[in-house]
Amino acid sequence: MKDGNEIQGNLIGGEWLPDGDCRPNVNPSDTRDIIGFFACADRTAVDQAVHAARSAFPAWAAAGPQVRHDLLDAVGTELLARKEEIGRLLAREEGKTLPEAMGETIRAGQVFKFFAGEALRVAGDAQQSVRPGIDVAVTREPVGVIALITPWNFPIAIPAWKIAPALAYGNCVVLKPAELTPGCAHVIAQLLHKHGCPAGVFNLVMGPGSVLGDALVSHPGIDAVSFTGSAATGSRIAATCGTLRRKVQLEMGGKNPMVVMDDADLQNAVQACLNGAFFSTGQRCTASSRLIVQKGIHDAFVERLGREMRALRVGDALQPDTQIGPVVDQRQLDSNLAYVELARSEAAEVLGGERLELDKPGFYQAPALFLNTTNDARINREEIFGPCASVIRVEDFDEALAIANDTEFGLSAGICTGSLKHASEFRRRVEAGMVMVNLPTAGVDYHVPFGGRKGSSFGPREQGRYAAEFYTVVKTAYQLA
Ligand code: NAP
Questions:
Q1: Which residue lies with its CA nearest to atom 35 of ligand 1?
Q2: Atom 22, ligand 1: residue with shortest CA distance
Q3: Do 234 and 252 form a contact (C-beta atoms < 8 A)?
Q4: What are phi and psi of 101, to 5 degrees?
């Protein structure tokens, strides 16, 4: 117990294990509201979790598709049924608005149900050998024990889109969610436990990445690591996995361009940018952070976007009229505010971006638009990860495309245009994993691949049937007929 509250424990080998140490989970909309106390694992707990997963692996790998389907389907069904209650928890711990949080919970449920189906569809190839009298079979097998490390900004969807395929293809899992948002990961752990997930198949270890991350990634019992988070942490994990020759999948940051051409539908372009840049408080890896606008539409676009941005209602994530929730914590807020100052020092004209003091003590910030910026400014090179977007004025399509591609990242890219030629050429030539035409850069489906290029991603894609590339290994068998 902590201050009269039960400590929410780690799940290791089928047992809930509250450690002595625990952390409060604080509501960023109202820092007086403590959502709960969550156990903090140590290196010993990580070791126990990996051993539990290793012990469970042979039986789970052999369990067959029906058992895996039924478990994932039951979890998906319950996530969908409890979307409002779990969405409230999500909004309370992460700060996105209730509709956004319920949408994310629904997405997590859909992902579990999709991979319940995929568990029944693990396919291989039967081929003729080039040598007469020999059969060749290519089959997929589970990888083993997989470490999953997830960020705070999609605290239920990202764990879901890693856990569900990992289990569907017969792997065992140790999940380390972000320390800021353990509540949603804990709900998934509860549901897996409740619906009969065998002991050790899924393990949850909560606590700081600086303590647990390396212990998990470099543990000899881990076969593969799937990570979503910042480029800096991703690089460290890649280095460790490279040395240990461990399969790794990294989804990292973005500096996503949204091109607005003179021939765009102005209202649609403004809405796409408003959504892409500021919704979910701009805390999306696919957020539109560089708005690359052709000179003819520039002034009208900036005037309208600025006006609509200033009208967005910032407030408590659970209030029905809130459109933009708080920033996730003080550290991220300080970082965002420092970028607003940096924008000024880099000669941008700044609209909004100020710290807001509302009726509750929360991490509130007005959305910010940086005008008259150049692509070489630091505000246009570094991921801010807050409700901030820059406008870069360009002459024509070629300049827009060149600037869109002039970044170390390559996650999502968008164009608003009425021209089929520009849309098609942009889709072909932009260096990004996902391309949006007349749509916000954020907002994706769950049954198709998700991921980027360049510094945004490393390794096989996530989601859809492409997830099998990471969560399975291929075996080629030859047999004398
Ligand atoms: P982060 O600081 O890199 O943290 C991500 C996860 O890594 C957290 O669970 C963190 O634990 C853990 N971690 C920290 N240090 C570690 C270490 N040395 N070894 C192993 N794990 C460690 O990122 P974040 O601030 O949570 O998330 C924001 C970033 O995620 C942004 O860059 C965003 O673009 C990116 N993101 C990318 C995608 C995508 O699909 N491309 C999706 C969402 C977010 P603690 O938090 O407990 O310290």
A1: 229
A2: 209
A3: yes
A4: -70, -40
Spatial separation of the C-alpha atoms in residues 240 and 196, rounded to whole Å = 34
Check residue 6 and report its DSSP letter: P
Two tokens, residue 129: 């050998």
Cα separation, 217 vs 210, in Å, equals 12
Tokens of 414: 């968008």
425 catalytically annotated: no
Q: Which residues line ligand 1 (CB under 6 A)?
A: 149-154, 176, 178-180, 208-210, 213-214, 217, 228-230, 233, 236-237, 251-254, 285, 383, 385, 411, 456
Q: Distance (Å, rounded) from C-alpha 117 to C-alpha 104? A: 20
**Do 364 and 315 form a contact (C-beta atoms < 8 A)?**
yes
Burial class (CB in 10 A: 0-12, 13-18, 19+), 7: buried
DSSP-derived pairing of the beta strands 224-228 and 457-458: unpaired
What domains can be seen in the chain, in order of their start residue?
A: 7-252+456-480 (3.40.605.10), 256-437 (3.40.309.10)
Residuewise pLDDT in 10s, the chain (481 residues)? 676 678 999 999 999 997 679 999 999 999 999 999 999 999 999 999 999 999 999 999 999 999 999 999 999 999 999 999 999 999 999 999 999 999 999 999 999 999 999 999 999 999 999 999 999 999 999 999 999 999 999 999 999 999 999 999 999 999 999 999 999 999 999 999 999 999 999 999 999 999 999 999 999 999 999 999 999 999 999 999 999 999 999 999 999 999 999 999 999 999 999 999 999 999 999 999 999 999 999 999 999 999 999 999 999 999 999 999 999 999 999 999 999 999 999 999 999 999 999 999 999 999 999 999 999 999 999 999 999 999 999 999 999 999 999 999 999 999 999 999 999 999 999 999 999 999 999 999 999 999 999 999 999 999 999 999 999 999 999 999 8
From CA 35, how far away is CA 370, in angstroms rounded? 35
Pocket of ligand 1, candidates 21, 204, 228, 283: which has the most ligand atoms within 8 Å of its Cβ, to mutate?
228
Q: What is the DSSP letter of 198?
A: P
The separation between the first and the last C-alpha atoms of the chain, rounded to the nearest angstrom, is: 64
Task: Please tell me the distance from the alpha carbon of residue 407 to that of residue 428, in angstroms, as a whole number.
Answer: 17
Hunting for tokens 């039951």 — which residue is that?
Answer: 74
Cα 336 to its chain centre, rounded Å, is: 19
Count of other CB atoms within 10 angstroms of residue 124: 14
435's CB contacts (< 8 A; 6+ apart) are 412, 413, 414, 415, 426, 427
